[in-house]
Write a structure and sequence with these properties.
Largest sheet: 3 strands, antiparallel
Number of helices: 0
Structural class: mainly beta
Number of domains: 1
Oligomer: single chain
Shape: globular
CATH superfamily: Jelly Rolls
Order of helices and strands: EEEEEEE
Strand order of the largest sheet: 5-4-7
Number of strands: 7
């Protein structure tokens, strides 16, 4: 691999990213920190998200991407392949590719 083809690392501060309302999300805003649209990755999507009261992401599936959620504050419900789970601070959720999920 030549130096020109080598993927470049990324360093940024979270405040450099903009809050977005992703498709299928309602009162659930995200900052895309490391994502295929802004970094040399195809499958990794790392973001910080803020869900307002009653905010949610519709149930959907990623064919290749994995998600990991770490809940900082508040309580909610995450649905994984039709099974609902209560999430609250210090809960970790791993969602492999192909799992239908929403929060």
């Amino acid at each position: 691999m030549s130096a020109q083809d080598k993927p470049q690392p990324k360093v940024m501060r979270a405040e450099e990213a903009f809050w977005e309302l992703p498709p299928g999300h309602f009162q659930a805003f995200s900052k895309l920190l490391v994502h295929p649209t802004n970094a040399h990755t195809r499958y990794f999507d790392f973001r910080i998200s803020s869900y307002q009261p009653r905010g949610y992401a519709e149930v959907h599936v990623h064919e290749v991407a994995e998600n990991i959620y770490y809940i900082l504050q508040g309580k909610g419900i995450v649905e994984l392949d039709g099974v609902r789970h209560l999430v609250e601070p210090h809960t970790v959720v791993h969602i492999p590719p192909g799992v239908r999920h929403g929060i």
